[in-house]
Amino acid sequence: MINFELDAQGIATLSWDMPGRSQNVINGESCAALFAAIERAVSDPAVKGILMTSAKADFIAGGDLEWLQSADAAPELYARTTALHKALRHLETCGKPVAMALPGTTLGGGLEVALCGHYRVAADKPSARFGLPEVTLGLLPGGGGTQRLPRLIGVQNALPLLLEGKRLKAADALKLGILNAVVAAGTEVQAARDWLLAQTGPVQQPWDTKGYKIPGGAISSPAVQQLIMAANAMLRAKTYGNYPAPEHILSCVYEGLITDLDTGLKTEARYFVHAVLSPQAKNMIRSLFFGMNEANKLAARPAGVDKQRYSRVGILGAGMMGAGIAYVTAKAGITAVLLDTSLEAAERGKDYSRKLLEKQAARGQITPEKAAALLERIVPTTDYAALDGAEMVIEAVFEDRTIKADVTRKSEAVLAPDAIFASNTSTLPITGLAEASARPANFIGLHFFSPVDKMPLVEVIMGKGTSDATLARSLDYIAAVGMTPIVVNDARGFYTSRVFSTYVMEGLQMLKEGVRPALIENAGLQAGMPVGPLALTDEVSAELLVKIEKQTAADLGDAYRPRPGLEVAQRIVALGRIGKKAGQGFYEYPEGGKKSLWQGLAELFPPAAEQPDVDVLVQRLIAVQAVETVRCMEEGVLTTARDVDIGAILGWGFPPFRGGTIGHIHSTGIAAFIGQCEALAQQFGERFQPPALLKTMVEEGRTFYSR
Ligand code: NAD
């Protein structure tokens, strides 16, 4: 676990090497080994200096989240946390010099251990990252990070690292003083030894020396007071109080730095326990860490299908979506044949990548050679013969059944019999589109999100005839381009578009009821959504909502029921205020200026004399999405809660602290959620009626997640 070696010069090397894992993590076993190794090194008089390092490519990746989540009781967690604090404190105050040789990435608990060394030297490795990213999972550093980092580099420098969880490259960590040296990879242990051997007397941490002052000013100094106040205000404005972890971090820094380190560590331990046990952290860890890891490891991939390697992929339509798909494909080292009706259009699609690469090159993120090679792999064409040899074709032509059918036939005439044909349609059911295909088993939906180079989600849609092999091989493509898949079954609007639209429609319905527009928008933000429903309607365009609704009405015939909110969309479209792209919608978009709500809304939708409580609006905006998700599950569109929640968070920005639409029901409690929905249904309509699935789950004592 932690190898202990004492050499002739009195240097004890403690090398982390957790068996059966590719990375070292902080958990019960490694802590026990760490405590024993520290005790031995400190108490053995033959040990003159202590060198801690790792036998793996990285130092320590951070805390073991399984271990962290296994504790449900505050006293146990507090005891674990303070035991680690005590051992690390013992190490840094023992008087013997302690050096940390960091061969690679050193994050979270790993960096906290490293901060207990009197000297930190890292290998110069481009992939290595240093930081305290706990906040991104609703946690805070619990190994002394909130106390040692600001004492080392000052409050001003530490706050962005603690509050945003930034991961630094070695050079930047060196500049900030988190590292003492960066040396050629493979020489870091020697550099640490050299430093240890050069020490002649007892060594102390800066914060343990007499007359120590926090760099950049003490907490009580006016400059730092102002900084903390500003950070508090910014946090509130950004999170609406939905994320307790960053608030706890600020409290740790503020309360902890007024006192000595030992008292500060106790403060940190208390806030840490609070954060670990919070529903927000549990939700974020479940979806953003465990769920995402499973999805990225292709948990949904049917077994027994050989891994498909991709060398050539055809992309039909070089518009907004096709251009983005070509970029991510070429970036993954795959030739992207980009086909459109004219060569100019195809070239324009390639220009999208050119512009992205120019920006990256200007920022030093890519070398000119790599950028040129990537561009070379995008082959613009109008000729279907260029698709010959492609393992897959993804169509992103106009959203029109006839055109999609035409390009399907033309492609299949050229493609090998086992090649996959994927459609990036946003609304048209896959089974219907597959009717144009001579091989429906090879036909699948791959729904990308815009902009493709920034949005990592792909919603994979299984048509009725889609084979498991096609699913498996399509997932291999998604893994190859480094994106995250969720798998859903075919239905109108699939999953993401269908549930996302309930959010905007609910907002529009509120407007019809006489709720003030600003209150609706604020309720959306307070709910944790990235954008208010009216602004979001403008982004996607009310015209598109009306168009989709019209298509749905035509397809469903007598079964069609107009959705709440539709009338509002129709009225705003009738005025020509179709959305952001037209420069006017629910908002005004002055050129070069900030958007503001359109004053005319008050006349069109007169506000009611009495305005509802914002909490009720928040509840409606969230519940409407969660209820629709359960309906998708009931209809078999969705099968795993994991995919549901990842899709919600990555697809349309459903608040991560709620864990996703199902995560929200899970952490509310199914029975409590049913109660909420029944009350909402009574007041606002049938759409809130809790689906039978939920009631059955309560009766049978089932839950969506085990934890
Ligand atoms: P777009 O209008 O920007 O691009 C469509 C491209 O297809 C155009 O360049 C057009 O010249 C080309 N095209 C049309 N007919 C063709 C044909 N017969 N052969 C070859 N090329 C042809 O559209 P877009 O926004 O990129 O959307 C493309 C598809 O992706 C649509 O099905 C859309 O519903 C879907 N989609 C769009 C988004 C989005 O946010 N825009 C998101 C997910 C899915």
TrEMBL record:
GO molecular function, one term: enoyl-CoA hydratase activity
Residue ranges annotated for the 3-hydroxyacyl-CoA dehydrogenase NAD binding domain, each copy included: 313-490
Domain 3-hydroxyacyl-CoA dehydrogenase C-terminal, chain residue ranges per copy: 493-589
Pathways involved: Lipid metabolism; fatty acid beta-oxidation
Reaction(s) catalysed (UniProt annotation): a (3S)-3-hydroxyacyl-CoA + NAD(+) = a 3-oxoacyl-CoA + NADH + H(+)
Coiled coil: none
Gene3D superfamilies found in the cross-reference section: 1.10.1040.50, 2-enoyl-CoA Hydratase, Chain A, domain 1 (3.90.226.10), NAD(P)-binding Rossmann-like Domain (3.40.50.720)
Alphabetized InterPro entries for the sequence: 3-OHacyl-CoA_DH_NAD-bd, 3HC_DH_C, 6-PGluconate_DH-like_C_sf, ClpP/crotonase-like_dom_sf, Enoyl-CoA_hydra/iso, FA_oxidation_alpha_subunit, NAD(P)-bd_dom_sf
Keyword Lyase: yes
UniProt-listed GO biological process terms: fatty acid beta-oxidation
Keyword annotations: Fatty acid metabolism, Isomerase, Lipid degradation, Lipid metabolism, Lyase, Multifunctional enzyme, NAD, Oxidoreductase
Family: In the central section; belongs to the 3-hydroxyacyl-CoA dehydrogenase family.
Name of the protein this chain belongs to: Enoyl-CoA hydratase/isomerase family protein
Taxonomic path: Bacteria, Pseudomonadati, Pseudomonadota, Betaproteobacteria, Burkholderiales
